[in-house]
Specification:
Number of strands: 8
Structural class: alpha+beta
Low-confidence stretches: 39-48
Strand content: 25-35%
């Protein structure tokens, strides 16, 4: 008699567990439940840049890593004035990067002002697409 009660209790527990486990499935199918439980869940990553074609990965082109300014020659400070750019000790520099989803190379000139701060004169930057 004791064994039969254990079997009945085990069968009842198994039935209750099955009913509880299938209840969410019934709710999703809308069978016998008056509550609409159709829910979509999505996960996304938002960056501060809203341009959809913007690239952030780095690449190497002609031996130079993108995202960094590279100089053509060693920069030596000798306080030599350049009247064209209105700055001291001007030097040419370039950088490989992304612009509007395309690989590009920036060519520009940097100079130093009276206080020794580096600046880029206006209108000297050129942009070339890299294939």
């Amino acid at each position: 008699m004791m064994k039969s009660l254990k079997y009945v209790a085990a069968a009842g527990a198994l039935g209750a567990a099955t009913a509880l486990a299938t209840a969410p499935a019934h709710a999703q199918l809308g069978l016998g439940v008056g509550v609409d439980t159709d829910v979509d869940v999505g996960v996304g990553v938002k960056t501060s840049d809203s341009h959809p074609r913007h690239r952030h990965e780095t690449y190497v082109y002609d031996g130079y890593e993108s995202g960094h300014w590279h100089t053509r020659h060693e920069v030596r400070r000798s306080h030599r004035w350049n009247a064209r750019y209105e700055g001291y000790d001007c030097y040419d520099s370039f950088q490989y990067t992304w612009e509007d989803g395309e690989r590009v190379r920036y060519d520009t000139t940097f100079c130093y002002n009276d206080r020794g701060r580096r600046f880029e004169p206006e209108g000297v930057r050129a942009v070339v697409k890299v294939r």
